[in-house]
Amino acid sequence: MESSKTDAIISIIRQEFESEIVHIEQPYDLLTITFKPERIIDIIQFLYSHSELQFQFLTTLCGIHYPDQNQIAVVYQLHNLKTNQRIRLKIFLSADQPQVSTLTGIFSAANWMERETYDFFGVTFIGHPNLKRILNVEDMIFFPLRKEFPLEDQTREDKNDALFGR
Amino acid sequence: MRAEDSISPIVPPEEKQYSYLNLGPTHPATHGIFQNVLKMDGEVIVEAESTIGYIHRAFEKLAERRPFYQITPITDRMNYCSAPINNIGWHMTVEKLLGVEIPKRVQYMRVIIMELARITDHLICNAVIGVDTGALTGFVYMFQQREHVYEIYEEICGARLTTNLGRIGGFERDFSPKAWAKIEKFLKEFPEVLKEFEKLLVRNRIFMDRTIGVGGITAERALNYGFTGPNLRAAGVDYDVRVMNPYSSYEDFDFTVPVGTQGDTYDRFMVRQAEMWQSLSIIRQAIDKLPAGPFHADVPDFYLPPKEEVYNNMESLIYHFKIVMGETDVPKGEVYHSVEGGNGELGFYLISDGGRAPFRLHFRRPCFIYYQAYTEMVKGSMLSDAILTMSSMNVIAGELDA
User: Fold this and answer.
1) Which pLDDT score is estimated for B83?
2) Phi, psi torsion values for B311, nearest 5 degrees
3) Which domains does chain A have, with CATH numbers?
4) Is the predicted ipTM greater than 0.85, yes or no?
5) Which residues of chain A neighbour B333 with C-beta distances below 8 Å?
């Protein structure tokens, strides 16, 4: 990826949302911008409808739990299929009560992706038409992809972690 | 879930009564375990709601505890109709994270395997569309060919359905002469069968009547719903990861991306059919151009050394032990890699914190994303068309739930 292309994108975003940007990086050539969570939907709408950017395809939407910072990140990956430009947007929410506006108004695809993120991380997407669990059973009270949720039954005694790995 | 609970009650006109129908979770026509609650007016679907998660196995959570090589068998079980693509996609993600240079020969061998997998994936889908329109004959012919591909897998990795094929860095062994012979045999025999299958259905009046204009979706809606793969191309968008972001030397091969216009069942069928021909041509080119060289990259930290060296060489023994116990740390990083799976863009979003297992691994499963459009696509259509729409979208339950 040429750096001039990404520089152009960054400058367009900077012009409009300078105060919202927290961090910009490019791990493995994929432009990643961290924003403050409040106006993320406006930002994505801007990326969607801007005549030069046209990020009109939602590739992924998922959550990440950072237990040390007590934060949950929501990651949006958008793709401009005309110029083959990808962008990754991140927001960090407090893990105690993660809340963000829904993206379903722009992308229909966000519907189940947000339900999945809610299901596994407990992120509430405000304004989502049908925010309920999607893969897990409905009466589950945990959010299983959070790091504090044990992968195996912690009461097991027949398995010694010191011998068989973490 | 009870049928009545799932759909928000709409006040019906006084004299009208709707019936509710459970399509699934275990229904022969759904070809997988997922439920659709249909609100029916006679035989017409008024409203639908899908419930998924019946075979959810928490792969993303499992992956957070496993060393990288142990995640490969997990990926098998996503789209089990084209497991090698998932395996190789995962290997390539890890290789991208590690920054490993893969020999040309390995890349070409991977292309051969991935295209074989694409053929099996598409042929099952198309054969099943035939079954759902009432033509069982073609299905039997096509399934026999899938068997031949599975025999090729067997020759290469020993497994058939859930292949766990290849290693991080390449293949566990070079293809045997027997495997090459089987690939050649398949390349010779399959076109005949495929041609016969096309004769059976493509211009068949009944088949055309049943599929044209059924379950259509416009390109705009398809993009908005995150469609990828043959389903998106049937709607007329020529997005193919193999062309747009070539991986594993796909840029070396000459092939076209077939597109449809209507995005209906017939177009999806035809796009898959055309892609099988393209895949055959890619395999042919890859075999003809296959360079000589090693069948794996030089990544001693992740690629198991040969057994003789493990017994006779100190370094190899250490590497072997570290790999098997999963004690090799990987670089920190955040990487997204996608391949063109049987159903579309299969993506791996991997975050590594430098430990032995991923900090977070998210699978972009194309099925999961496009299946949510199903309720919109079947609204107002007949029940029998809804079943056809589902089979032509090629919804694989394993990929849906992960």
Assistant:
1) 93
2) -80, -25
3) 3-144 (3.30.460.80)
4) yes
5) 27-28
> B101 pLDDT band (50/70/90 cuts)?
very high
Interchain contact, A145 vs B61, CB within 8 Å:
yes
Summarised one tens digit per residue, pLDDT across range A57-95 is: 999 999 999 999 999 999 999 999 999 999 999 999 999
The whole-angstrom distance between A5's CA and the closest CA on chain B is: 16
Distance CA B366, CA B361 (A): 16
Q: Which CATH architecture has domain B67-401?
A: Orthogonal Bundle (1.10)
Residue B62 CB partners (closer than 8 Å, separation 6+): A151, B74
- B74 part of contact set with chain A, CB < 8 Å: no
Residue B267's nearest CA partner among B276, B258, B257, B254 is B258
| The pLDDT of residue A164 is above 80 | no
Residue B31 pLDDT level (bands cut at 50, 70, 90): confident
Q: Which of the four pLDDT bands, split at 50, 70 and 90, describes residue A166?
A: very low
Give chain B positions within 8 Å (CB) of A74: none
pLDDT tens digits for range B230-239: 999 999 999 9
Mean pLDDT of B273-287: 95
Given a cut of 60, is residue B8 above it in pLDDT? no
User: In B, residues 84-113, which contact A (CB 8 Å cutoff)?
Assistant: 96-97
For residues B189 and B191, give the distance between their C-alpha atoms in angstroms, rounded to a whole number. 6
Count of CB pairs separated by less than 8 Å, A with B: 92
Contacts of B359 in chain A (CB under 8 A): 64
The dihedral region occupied by B177, where left means phi > 0, alpha psi between -120 and 50, and beta the remainder, is alpha
Which of A 1-60 lie inside 8 A of B, CB atoms? 27-28, 30, 32, 56-60
CA of A102, closest CA in chain B: separation in Å?
15
> What one-character DSSP code corresponds to residue A27?
G
Asked whether the beta carbons of residue A109 and residue B226 sit closer than 8 angstroms, the reply is yes
Which residue spans of chain B are classified as CATH 1.10.645.10? 67-401
The Cα B69–Cα A56 span in angstroms is 35
